[in-house]
Design a protein that fits this description.
Elements: H1 2-11, H2 19-34, H3 40-69, H4 71-85, H5 88-103, H6 107-115, H7 127-174, H8 186-210, H9 213-223, H10 232-243, E1 246-253, E2 256-264, H11 271-303
Antiparallel strand pairs: 1-2
Function: Converts cobyric acid to cobinamide by the addition of aminopropanol on the F carboxylic group.
Keywords: Cell membrane, Cobalamin biosynthesis, Membrane, Transmembrane, Transmembrane helix
GO molecular function, one term: ABC-type vitamin B12 transporter activity
Length: 304
Amino acid sequence: MMLGVLLDMRLGEATRWHPLVGFGNLAIRIEKKLNTGGSRIVRGAVAWMLIVLPLVLVAWLLTFWLAQFDLLLAFGVHALLLYFGLGLRSLRDHTLPIAHALMDGDLSQARLLTARIVSRDTTQAQEADLAKAGVESLLENGNDAVFGTLFWFVLAGGPGVVLFRFANTLDAMWGYRTQRFNEFGRVAARIDDVLNFIPARLTALSYAVLGNAKQAWQCWRVQAPAWSSPNAGPVMSAGAGALGISLGGAAIYDGEVEQRPPLGIGPAAAGKDIARAWRLVVLTTVLWLALICIAAVIAGVVHA
């Protein structure tokens, strides 16, 4: 686990032959073939199983087989699978430049950078809108790209990472309430909700412990139920409360203003708060690694 995290922070995302990119291209082709009428919910479930389950099985068979012959090589494969599944450095590389642009007063550059990581319209966005988008992306994707991945690695090693990240990717691609995906992507969305249920709450708890715990708990309890996502609500509300800033509210999607439930307590987010949110994600990563390593040592002692 430590090796996988270190590889991610040292190398960042693979620029060529990234498994998630290849998986996304495969998902696009499968969706075009199967999302064509009939019972779209059933078709979406079949598509999910056709794409995810064989790849998880391959990862499990590979690591299981290697463990019988070469533990060191199996160790390396587990770490490599975790590296490909993590997005800690990617979060930093995509969000801190937004903070720097905002603090330098370069609004046009901040708009361009923010548009690369969120689906909302940023063409007329002001500093508070861009800072809000950056912080929200960090808090939510801290769970999806880092802590949920670590959680499933602890439970099931490299194959657990493959399961979680591919399920999360399909939710990001298909889990929309549009005419095209409302039924076809429903199973993908529900599976992601289930896989993320415990990691999201552990992430929210970690944000609270490392920030303003009282405010984080208050926001989590009061604001999270208003969000349509059962997992994003706790993560972002607790994170906003821990940081002592206000998120949520109005955002423009496809030319229309969407009023989202409020998140957090305090002043509106500013450029410097993106850096604060990044530090919270890093501290949470350190906390998780420390606790997991301590638990592993205790388990080893007990087992011995």
